[in-house]
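Hey,
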Amino acid sequence: MKAGTTVLIVDDERNFCTALMRELRGLGYDGLAAGSVQEAQAAVTGEPPCLIILGTVMPRGDTYRFHRWLKQNPRFQGIPHVIVDAPPEKRLSRGWRKEEGMRLEAEEYFGRPIKPAALAFAVQKILDVQERKFRILVADDHAMVREGIRALLNLQRDIQIVGEAMDGEDAVAKARELLPDIILMDIIMPGMNGIEAARRISREGLENTRILMLSQYDDEENIMASRKAGAVGFVSKKSVSSCLLEAIRDTGQSGQPRQYFC
């Protein structure tokens, strides 16, 4: 099974979901079905899916509201959506409304009837062209530093900033909420410092979140403290322009946490 390739199917037609999940498994994806918006919201509370298929559930309009909720939630930004509308004879009672269709943000739109094999193939094509994006949380109390890091990272097609934190407490809260791939954590911050924030995040068991410490104080004491707190790397602010992108990609691409200190 491919890691991190769960496809969420939101549709209340059980036979359709079962057939589609069978086709997805044949392509190496794990299908997860939700017959209501409540089930769909519960399904995304863990690891976010790699793609969401939005079919039809009752009452009419619930699927669209779920679609908008996902698009407005920073945690789910970047997840592609595929719309599967009701057949023409049922669209007035079960399908997507015209005004909803005008506000859709989806990679593909299909109308029933559609063969599960064809839909699964379309899903595979979308995921094949989706670039892997490293989801980054930037924690630094200086707005100018955050702005500089944001300017650098926003130029990278494979990096997405999902949030910013102004102190350690904020970083811990945002880590729980956004589940970033990597946290860029300043050491010296008011209130809870970056070392304590890293320690707390490590204790929380966010196994898919790795921490890179940032500091202008690159002495051995801070490097050792960062390691003990659970950080997988330390980047001196003096070397950010040359080392940070390499550190992010090296940390994000490795299957296991790797020590990266420069």
